[in-house]
Amino acid sequence: MNSLEKLRNALPNGAAVMCDWFAESAQNAVIKTTDGREFTDFAGGIGVLNTGHMHPKVVAAVEAQLKKFSHTAFQVVPYGSYVELAERINALVPISGKVKSQFFSSGAEAVENAVKIARAYTKRDGIIAFGGAFHGRTLMTLALTGKVQPYAADFGAMPTGVYHALYPSKTQDVSVEEALKSIKRIFKSDIAPTDVAAIILEPVQGEGGFNVCPPEFMRALRAICDEHGIVLIADEVQSGFARTGKLFAMEHYDVQADIMTMAKSMAGGFVLSGVSGRAEIMDAPRPGGLGGTYAGNPLGVAASLAVLDVIEEEKLLQRSQQLGERLTTFLKGLNAPEISDIRGLGSMVAVEFGDDENPRTEFAAKVKNYAMANNLLLLTCGVHGNVIRFLYPLTIEDERFDRALEIIKQGVEAARG
């Protein structure tokens, strides 16, 4: 029995995997396989590796922490590194006034706790999310996620009190005006605004196709929340930590969220997530109301402190912008008629093939498969799976980046003919 047969024999059907090979080791933008191949990684563990695989500074920080202790449960025995990270994050998130933060494990856990905090603060139940959104795989975050297949299918009724509005999208022909009208319809038909605790959105939708929130839509959401006493939650799980050319995507906007969630590249491949927000909102749950056995694990905290240093020392915000500009220029230069849109912020870039009426899902799959056959790892996304997103490490070498772009060009040509 080979390794894939063992996998299928040991794991349930729901635990699907994309690659038909196994990782042996990884460094920066390269994954070496157990069968001797070498892949350039443009997937980044689904956006987790902005600082690359096994960054030396991150590894050193974790090794140093591991020699001290691996776990105490922070709510039982606290440790100073957690507080240090909270202080640094509080100073960095684009939220005015006094800010507080708390750390958890997964992005879904961060989102769940953000909802709990908003409900505790407002004493309301309703949550408005958006079509195409992805907020996690727990039942509450599945209810928020605006994509049924494969995430919510088979799992029955979702938690109540969640309503989905339209998200602006050029290729889905949803204007800002139409998206705002969909919120007003929810207020008229489903739930009064005075019963809504929070509106949650990704400034750049991840799984939804890297749809960038238009500035005028973000301003309008802020105005709606201010008018009705609703908490605005920005889910930055995928868009945070230099991916968009800013530390957080919300820095691209002239309004602010009340609460922000973060995870993925926060700890450079180690497990950590967080929620930051206005202090008066974050303080709403009673003592003991928020926590978790592994929440704010000391290894993840140590890694995150190192990640913040790496982003600053290696100027990854500028690097993100430079690589994103090179990628966007390259994609435009393909002049491929199959491409309906090239979009993104910084290095959070995607290319869409076809549109909502005529999605070129098979074309996107052919490009991805060609890349895989030529040792380049790509991910698709979008409601129809017709979008390719690029999540390379921001620390990738120029030569390797350019070779990857050439493979993508060849993949587009191969998919066409």
Automatic annotation (TrEMBL):
Top-rank taxon: Bacteria
Similarity comment: family membership: Belongs to the class-III pyridoxal-phosphate-dependent aminotransferase family.
Gene name of the record: gabT
The keyword Transferase is assigned to this record: yes
Cofactor(s) the record lists: pyridoxal 5'-phosphate
Molecular function terms, GO-annotated: 4-aminobutyrate:2-oxoglutarate transaminase activity; identical protein binding; pyridoxal phosphate binding
Protein name (Swiss-Prot/TrEMBL): 4-aminobutyrate--2-oxoglutarate transaminase
Transport is among the record's keywords: no
GO BP terms, alphabetized: gamma-aminobutyric acid metabolic process
Pfam family, one: Aminotran_3
Keywords in alphabetical order: Aminotransferase, Pyridoxal phosphate, Transferase
Organism: Neisseria lisongii
